[in-house]
Write a sequence for this structure.
């Protein structure tokens, strides 16, 4: 099973950049998305993310994420237009103001989610954790917690899948067309999932301790993450993007 | 040599419970030994592993008495980190142990933490990968590896830290026989080349008897036997009583000794030893040609009565409609992966059919096509008269029950009674009747009806899952690795229940790695490899087809291999025997003459 945040191997500049620089660039795009208030800027930032995705060869991942996000964005748009009552009437219940705020909110949603996923698909989690510890002086404990949590997502996904299959085979109607019925049927599954995840988390803690987790310091990592000129360039670009976002 | 591990009168109980997990255990392990620990479920093996690796008392809490030394360190006084630099521990759940997404990073983690000088890391990394035999996997994503490869990565990552002892808790529970053997070859290499002491908790006795210097047997928190495999497996009767399996050839030896045919001495542990033993016992009495016809007749007649496990021919109505049929079925996963092609299969009511093959041969895909979780991309799968493409899974479930490998994936109710009745309720049986039927089955299995399933032991939970299948009285039963993770006794309970249901008219399809179980219970076999059915036929006959077995990379059960060899070297009377009792009675016939 392929997960959206799994690492996609490659040798592009995006792959080779320092993880901290990638994080900076993603943060730059996200902050700019929040501060930007014009369509050209919002669309431009979104396009930039997609172009970077195509360049790094991970466009498929972004596309599959878009499949999930676009329906969510549409729901958000409809809600926004329903609550925003100022401005001239447009069609049905929508007003011009509502349509503008709603569509910008949608663009922001996409603009915030995509850069993060892009960054994660071109960075190995270990590199991200180690680089953050080395360069940003993040305590390893937090970096480890974060990467472990991300690593558990697909594992729990598989576990959930296996549980659903077992229950379906027993006759629980997960193949029902009614989404509400499906949801009520899924609730009891929390029990087996919770039992297995608590067990797994405990085993992980034990295994990490038995492999010297508490001895680890900032100097432990064998790999080093120096900042190269391209990383500095990326950070400068990030700052530039934020400035543009504030301006437009 | 000084012992590297020493336990003196150690007792342990989890939490405040009065039940002791370890009961006055004393043992010592010399440096460089390869020790195997066997015992039924709940005998304290995992607890012993936890004590040896320092997880008790540092991670699991409870009441601990006695003292444990690893390389002179008292495990109660040393920190877990210090203990770990001597004792490397490979957990049962390797997914939980992994910290990285790429093999190289996984290897680095421990070395970095324990402060291996950075100029030595590369060399040690390369050496360790070579010792374990996975140098080609260095840059691979862990998620893309097979079960056997993952297990080796887990071992390599621990080994790279340079421990003097490796403690492994059921390292091969999820692996097929071929991958299991490779893992054991690796452990032997680590043990011999690096002098690393290996302690392994294991169910697969035939494997242990081949690889270990010493076997310890645990029962109810005590070590009841400890010694070289030849000594320990001589106690076949006692082992069986506490719920431990012995290699099948050892059972032949023990029976022959008990019947006074061969003198008591050192038991045979593998096929070659058994062959020699029987050759000696017969002392050239029988040449290949003479009297063979007579012997064959005698043994044929002796078969059904003397084989308690032998699948007796079931009353199969001539011309009955098959309960399950596959007609030219193909399926492939959208993202690639084990696809199956042109499957043809018919299973009749009352039959127990085994499906065997390596991991990735398409066996699990076959089971999912059966219970409707997957729909064929071409061809037709019919289950109890329902076309799986048209009937929803929940309707198929009223006719077909699946016993899954891991019971914890299906348990979701608050009491055992609700859990067992759940399947019936789902398929439309009225509450009252469902609970009544569930109650009867629960009583038969001796389960506590009002307890919460998750408060029971793993073996009990497996029984709940089994009870949930039995209560459905299904026309078709699908078993996916029914015996993995179970001890000998639990495995027999499951299999005997299932064969009873077959006798009452259910069609059973069983996917299983354990060839001994398959040969004991399945009357017909389907051999799969690379998504195709390579061969099929009566169990004894299929196991006898050497070429087919090799093509599918299946090691035939010990007794089949033994009887094949004996048929070639001693007498054709041995040809086609697959049961311990059959071989014993043929040998005794010959000796008597």
């Amino acid at each position: 099973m392929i997960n959206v945040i799994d690492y996609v191997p490659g040798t592009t500049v995006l792959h080779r950049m320092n993880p901290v620089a990638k994080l900076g660039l993603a943060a730059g795009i996200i902050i700019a998305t929040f501060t930007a208030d014009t369509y050209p800027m919002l669309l431009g930032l979104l396009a930039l993310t997609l172009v970077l995705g195509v360049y790094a060869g991970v466009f498929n991942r972004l596309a599959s994420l878009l499949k999930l996000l676009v329906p969510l964005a549409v729901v958000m748009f409809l809600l926004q237009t329903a609550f925003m009552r100022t401005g001239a009437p447009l069609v049905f219940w929508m007003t011009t103001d509502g349509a503008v705020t709603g569509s910008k909110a949608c663009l922001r949603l996409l603009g915030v989610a995509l850069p993060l996923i892009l960054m994660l698909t071109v960075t190995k989690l270990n590199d991200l954790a180690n680089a953050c510890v080395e360069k940003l002086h993040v305590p390893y404990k937090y970096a480890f917690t974060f990467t472990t949590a991300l690593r558990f997502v697909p594992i729990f996904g598989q576990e959930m899948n296996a549980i659903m299959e077992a229950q379906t085979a027993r006759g629980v109607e997960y193949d029902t067309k009614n989404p509400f019925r499906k949801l009520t049927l899924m609730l009891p599954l929390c029990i087996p999932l919770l039992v297995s995840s608590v067990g797994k988390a405990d085993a992980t803690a034990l295994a990490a301790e038995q492999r010297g987790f508490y001895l680890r310091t900032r100097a432990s990592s064998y790999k080093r993450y120096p900042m190269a000129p391209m990383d500095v360039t990326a950070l400068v670009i990030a700052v530039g993007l934020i400035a543009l976002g504030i301006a437009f | 040599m000084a012992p590297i591990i020493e336990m003196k009168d150690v007792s342990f109980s989890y939490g405040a419970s009065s039940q002791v997990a370890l009961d006055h255990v004393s043992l010592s392990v010399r440096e460089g030994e390869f020790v195997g620990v066997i015992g039924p479920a709940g005998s304290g093996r995992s607890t012993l592993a936890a004590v040896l690796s320092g997880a008790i008392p540092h991670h699991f809490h409870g009441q601990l008495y006695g003292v444990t030394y690893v390389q002179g360190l008292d495990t109660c006084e040393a920190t877990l980190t210090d203990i770990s630099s001597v004792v490397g521990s490979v957990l049962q759940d390797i997914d939980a142990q992994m910290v990285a997404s790429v093999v190289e990073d996984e290897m680095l983690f421990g070395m970095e933490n324990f402060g291996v000088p950075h100029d030595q890391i590369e060399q040690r990394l390369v050496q360790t990968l070579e010792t374990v035999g996975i140098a080609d996997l260095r840059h691979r994503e862990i998620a893309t590896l097979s079960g056997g490869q993952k297990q080796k990565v887990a071992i390599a990552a621990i080994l790279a830290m340079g421990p003097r002892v490796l403690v492994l808790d059921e390292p091969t529970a999820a692996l097929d026989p071929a991958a299991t053997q490779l893992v054991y070859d690796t452990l032997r290499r680590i043990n011999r080349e690096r002098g690393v002491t290996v302690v392994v908790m294991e169910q697969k006795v035939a494997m242990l008897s081949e690889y270990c210097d010493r076997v310890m047997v645990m029962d109810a928190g005590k070590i009841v036997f400890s010694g070289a495999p030849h000594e320990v497996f001589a106690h076949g009767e006692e082992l069986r009583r506490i719920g431990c399996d012995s290699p099948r050839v050892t059972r032949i030896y023990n029976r022959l000794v008990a019947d006074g045919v061969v003198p008591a001495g050192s038991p045979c542990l593998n096929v070659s030893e058994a062959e020699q033993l029987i050759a000696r016992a017969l002392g050239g009495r029988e040449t290949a040609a003479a009297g063979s016809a007579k012997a064959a007749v005698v043994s044929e007649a002796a078969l059904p009565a003397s084989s308690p496990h032998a699948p007796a021919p079931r009353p199969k109505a001539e011309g009955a409609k098959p309960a399950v049929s596959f007609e030219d079925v193909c399926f492939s996963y959208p993202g690639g992966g084990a696809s199956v092609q042109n499957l043809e299969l018919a299973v009749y009511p009352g039959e127990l059919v085994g499906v065997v093959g390596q991991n990735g041969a398409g066996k699990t895909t076959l089971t999912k096509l059966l219970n409707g979780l997957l729909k064929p991309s071409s061809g037709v799968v019919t289950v109890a008269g329902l076309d799986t493409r048209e009937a929803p899974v929940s309707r198929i479930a009223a006719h077909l029950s699946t016993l899954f490998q891991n019971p914890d994936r299906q348990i979701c109710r608050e009491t055992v009674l609700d859990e067992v009745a759940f399947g019936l309720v789902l398929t439309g049986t009225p509450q009252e009747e469902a609970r009544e039927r569930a109650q009867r089955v629960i009583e038969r299995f001796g389960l506590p009806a009002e307890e919460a399933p998750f408060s029971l032991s793993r073996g009990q939970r497996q029984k709940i899952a089994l009870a949930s299948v039995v209560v459905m009285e299904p026309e078709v039963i699908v078993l996916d690795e029914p015996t993995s993770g179970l001890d000998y006794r639990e495995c027999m309970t499951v299999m005997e229940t299932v064969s009873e249901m077959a006798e009452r008219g259910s069609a059973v399809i069983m996917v299983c790695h354990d060839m001994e179980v398959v040969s004991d219970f399945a009357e017909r076999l389907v051999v799969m490899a690379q998504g195709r059915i390579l061969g099929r036929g009566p169990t004894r006959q299929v196991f006898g087809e050497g070429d087919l077995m090799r093509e599918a990379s299946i090691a035939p059960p010990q007794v089949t291999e033994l009887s094949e060899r004996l048929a070639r070297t001693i007498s054709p009377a041995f040809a086609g025997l697959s049961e311990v009792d059959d071989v014993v009675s043929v040998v005794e016939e010959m000796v008597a003459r």
